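Worked example

This section walks through a single chain of length 444. The input is the sequence exactly as stored; nothing has been trimmed or padded.
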Amino acid sequence: MTTQRESTDALSDFAELMDGAEAPADTARDVHGRRVVGRIVLAIVLVLAVCGLSVGGYAVWALSAPVPAPTAHLRDPVLAAPEAVSIATPTQGAAAVRVTGAEEYLGPEGLEAASGPGDPLPIASITKLVTALVVLDAYPLGDGDPGPTITFGAADHALYDAYYVRGATIAAMPAGSSMSLRNALGTMLIPSASNYAHAVSTWAFGSLPNFLAAAREWLDDNGMTSTTIVDPTGLDPGNVSTTADLLRLGALAAADPTVSALAATPSLTLDATGTLRNTNELLGVDGVTGMKTGNLGNGTFTYLYTASLEVGAGEPLQVVGAVLGGQTRAATSDVALRTLASIRSGFHEVELAEAGTVVGEISTPWGESSAAVVADDVAVLTWSDTPVEVTVHTRTPEQYRAGAVVGSITWTAGPNSASSDIVVAEHIAEPTAWWRLTHPDRLG
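Given that input, the structure is written out below as tokens.
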């Protein structure tokens, strides 16, 4: 049994223990705090005395009892919204573009943009794509199929001189020479020979009026009601269309194996004509795969192009673009290249966080703390200004040492996500003996 004298001696011993513990230094500001702590200690000792416990037993317990775990306070990091893509547009004329593929980014309908007037404008030699597709509608060719043989007569030969005096692009067509339909179409499309466009269209339909009637029917059947064709070459400025109709035309041409293959051919060498080079100077540049240029001069340059773009989003993007009313060939080509560049740049890596980015704090009841930081550099591929969502999860590590994982963070943008561990930045010190002895209510 503990006597009053023994309790007094224990109190004295415990007070000496407190004096020797890891207490704060005596300063004017600490005096009040020391008095408060002293009262706490006296209260603890008196309770122990009444309960028949020894001060030594309390000290052993307090110095070894479990302490409460630190608390993680994590937050979503602030992330600037991704920049929206702006499709490049011409300063003069009209342009349109349609992008398909990468549905998880662009959606099942893809992306479409247009600028400039929507009224029909002259299309020049883009007309020859219509001529080729109308002829192939009547005489379809399989992949690599040369098709029927065309023999050119004196009237066909006369077309060479007729179109020469008009300043059109032409190719040799000797009377009595013959050529497969595929090669005749290639001569019409690759160097843009107008005499071949005239000859092939009349061969296929018997006369120019018959061809024009077939062309009108084909355009209506394919939804190009804003397109007018008055001759098979495009030399007549009455051949007009809109950029919206030309996007349909480009998609149909790209889907036709004969036209798409010829439009992608850099050059063609034939016995009757020699070597013919493609007028599409951008073929093979920045992903361009076709289709047709046009030029009537006087600010009437046209371009219908297709492209395949690798942007890191799975399968390549498929692009169809149209430019009408260009002032020069170079300016018209520049519109196409800037449009493709803007589409490509719209798929970009968004920097989400750098290793060491603070996303919270780990704090303890005994006053120690450390920042909670992202463990890795993190980025995600996304399209344009697709929103980025952030999810944070916490977990309890066995020890709160530097590098200990206290959670994870995941960013999601469209179909892509990226994650990183969240770790303790600096080691969290254990509580001092003084804190343990003076905070029994916080011990386990």
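What to look for: The first strand starts at residue 71 and ends at 74.
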